[in-house]
Amino acid sequence: MKKILFVTSEVYPLIKTGGLADVSNSLPKALSQTGQDVKLVIPNYHGLKITAPVIERSLFKIGTHTVRLLETMLPDSDVGIWLVDCPEYFDISGNPYVDFAGNAYGNNAERFALFCRAAIEIAMNRAGLDWTADVVHCHDWQTGLVPALLSLEYKCPPTVFTIHNLAYQGLFNGLMAATLQLPSQLLSPDGLEFFSMISFIKGGIAYADKITTVSPTYAQDIQTAELGYGLEGLLVYRNQDLIGIINGIDDDWNPQIDPFIAKNYSVDTLADKKENKKALQTHFNLPVDENILLIGLISRLVEQKGIDMILGCLSEMLTFPIQFVLLGSGDKGFEKQLREFAQANPNKLSLTLGYDEALAHLIEAGADVFLMPSRFEPCGLNQMYSQRYGTLPIVRKTGGLADTVVDTLPSTISDKTATGFVFNEASEGALLETIKRVVMLYGFPEIWHQIQVNAMNVDFSWKSSAEQYIDVYSKI
Ligand code: ADP
């Protein structure tokens, strides 16, 4: 049994902006089920949705700030959560990183540096909790200073740093080094410095004992200039310590027991899926028609997710016999263009702007296919959720999408391994050709049904991913 401190800036269902929150919920639970003692530490944002009791555990100082440590539990688990309470930094009810206009908070460096220092106090058993970490597992730039600062401690526990998305790096003006009181030995180009700036994510990549990322293909992708954001050299240098472990998905996404969908179903009662299609069409005010291909999309509306590519060929796509439902929010320009398309094509395209967990489940259950043409994708969750719901994913061959979707080809149809549709080139033409291919295949219900069965039978459980993480912990 190991004592694992899981340092993360978001965890579902307390607070979520993306896939990191899902992983921070599922992986600790899966680790705990193997007998590990896992504790989460997150900032005590004002807007946290907490259902379990909260107790106050301790009080300590970080610089001039007084930090209160609160304790609660992750729902439906025996995983404890420590909340770093520092109201001047975390007493916010909206997004943890950006304001309502989408701009990063001006004091993000100070906020997450304090969070990192609090995590170190816990890991080193200096926070009054009578608990010392055997392993500290950090996630994304918000926690990058933990491996860096911990490396300077006497008898520090080993660290693992997981990159969920290298595009977000926590880059700050170099002058912040003084404000944050970062020790000079960390400030070299081998350390936190990145072209005269301070890079939080480099703290994780340069100093952690092991680096993981959330799919084997993405572990390769980030070692290239195209997706390495200037960190590819360091990642190549550290590639003996870099490993890709695909995320699992958990039972919140299971059509057999999903409380958010119109009718539960399984691979044996797949015909019931059409009740969800009907409910989805009704919800989105689309003509109720079980024979038209219904495409779903749930996404942050940003370039990474290929939204610009979709917009570039949407006029032509809408000439096909399809319906298209979208749920998302993000780039205001993309939102505006999508709204215009929806207004002009009310019988084919329906759009909900915003974040809606329940609707996301209904889309997964009711759509025939799920569109995810990402330009890059560290792991991606929706293509796995989709397969579990018999909703065939259409994805670009990158990162975790390449690792988890098997393209439909004559050979994969006959050996029953096909689970979706994969295209290579990040171009509107390639996307459009793939949609055509999907529309055509939708006319062959027996083949379609077999691919749904293949997809629904793939094992995306957390168990095997958790075992791989335990293996990494054991190595250090
Ligand atoms: P990323 O973390 O890059 O946004 P992932 O596919 O890894 O992408 O995870 C996204 C998660 O967020 C999924 O669980 C997805 O269903 C959810 N999601 C994204 N946008 C919305 C939205 N507008 N409403 C509900 N859920 C959303």
What's a quick, concise take on this entry?
The chain has helices at residues 19-33, 87-90, 108-123, 145-150, 176-179, 200-207, 216-221, 225-228, 232-237, 273-283, 307-317, 332-344, 357-366, 382-388, 399-404, 410-414, 428-442, 445-456, 462-475, and strands spanning 3-7, 37-43, 55-62, 65-73, 80-85, 135-139, 159-163, 171-173, 193-194, 197-199, 210-213, 242-244, 293-301, 322-330, 349-353, 369-372, 392-396, 421-423. With 476 residues, the chain is α/β, with parallel strands linked by helices.
Helices and strands in order:
Blueprint: E1 3-7, H1 19-33, E2 37-43, E3 55-62, E4 65-73, E5 80-85, H2 87-90, H3 108-123, E6 135-139, H4 145-150, E7 159-163, E8 171-173, H5 176-179, E9 193-194, E10 197-199, H6 200-207, E11 210-213, H7 216-221, H8 225-228, H9 232-237, E12 242-244, H10 273-283, E13 293-301, H11 307-317, E14 322-330, H12 332-344, E15 349-353, H13 357-366, E16 369-372, H14 382-388, E17 392-396, H15 399-404, H16 410-414, E18 421-423, H17 428-442, H18 445-456, H19 462-475
Parallel strand pairs: 1-2, 1-6, 2-5, 6-7, 7-11, 11-12, 13-14, 13-16, 14-15, 16-17, 17-18
Antiparallel strand pairs: 3-4, 4-5, 8-10, 9-10
Bound molecules: adenosine-5'-diphosphate.
Adenosine-5'-diphosphate binds next to helix 1, strand 13, strand 14 and helix 13.
